[in-house]
Design a protein that fits this description.
502 residues; alpha+beta; four-stranded antiparallel β-sheet; three-stranded mixed β-sheet
Amino acid sequence: KNWNIIGKYIDEGITGTQAKKRPAFLNMIEDAKKGKFDLIVTREVCRFARNTVDTLVTTRELRNYGIEVYFVEDNIWTMDGDGELRLTIMATLAQEESRKVSERVKAGQQISREKGMVYGCGNILGYTREVGGTYEIDEEQAETVKLIFKMYTEDEFGSQRIARELERLGRKTALGYSNWHPEVVLATLKNPTYTGIQAYGKSFNNNYLEQKRIQNRDRSKYMYVKSNYEPIIPFEVFEKAQRIRESKKVITYSSDENGKNILIEKTRKNPASIWARKIVDENGVHFRRQRWCEDKNGGEVYGYLKKMPKVREPDDERKSLGIPEWKFEQMGPLVVEYISDNVDSIASALLRSIETQKEKAEGAPSPLDIMIRIEKLESKLETLMEMRLGDEITPDEYKEMKAAAEKELRKYKAKDRAASRIVEIDIDALAGIKDKLTSIIKEAQSTEEMVEKAISKIVPRNRSLFEWFVKIDDGEIAIPVVAEGRTRHVAISIQDDWKNQI
């Protein structure tokens, strides 16, 4: 009866495993420091905290301020001699109870997952969540989902370009917004929900005490379960999107706080500049686009630099290799025009490139090697005949050497006939390459589009000589282009050396 109640501190529906997540609890500690009361009454230890460390640290801190804590159900007074011992035991039991609750919750979640239970609030693009925990297709949003996958897998758009296109078309996000972010597009492309499959384990709590939510980056550890709602995207289309995503990743290693190497996957950003995507050195290392200066009209001038190793020899000339962007902008239209005017020659060279690769892979001699070998064997047979007529070799020796030469000659003549048949068949292959190259030329609406589809890479040999690689199917040839001079007085010439590749 002689107690005066100063106030009540209640955290409703908040876990007791972490004091830092309980605003009323923290407010109580602050009031204690200000001396607003000298006694805290709580029903039992588990209502005060379910973390043993938090319980002991907090009660010791309160004792320093002259404040006692009384646990009614457990009849513990923290100022008593054995109060802390009894409190430690009860706090440990409370913490153990939290662990058991956590395990029971996880077990229940596992059963729900095995049944394909739909989690979340249901604000997923393309679906609305119905009573009973299932999804119903939202036809208008589903069209947006299909459009995203089509642009990514068929039109080869990147996430940023898809986002801009969706904004242009006036498509709405799942929350009804008109603004699209590339991350939202990527999240859609990565979500197997659209195939009727639920992916569980995308995130997890680190432990039952801290309950810190951690994103699971390892997709191989997800739990995939077929659910009972209607899919929007065929599984094959989804898999194709994942293959494209994987091809755009670079794998890097980092170190954790203990110095242990850990694997980190970072998505490679597709450069906005067509030249940044195409310019590489002889080892395939890309150049980076960099702002150089401003022109007389205030416009920005860009150039391309190759990222060089930190440790280089003093006479390494590569460290100063920088190429202005205007060179590629002026070379591009001329190269495109040159390809359009030389479709037959380029197609023949591409076909020869394919055949050469096949010959190397199979270890087979080229048609020229076969012809040379046949001529040598025929000459050898004539020589053997002359040697026999001159009694330089015995009849038995002549028969043995003649038989061996004739056998090898028959083998190479058979190869020569087979090579002739291949040439006849390759007329169709040549026509196919010409058709593909012609189709690219006709469909390309700009120099950039033509370069994107027909040019596999551009390799600068120095500041003036550049090799533009044309690639169709497995065939690839290099067209040397020379660009000399300054912006307004540049001289561009295309060398015909590449025709030796035919």
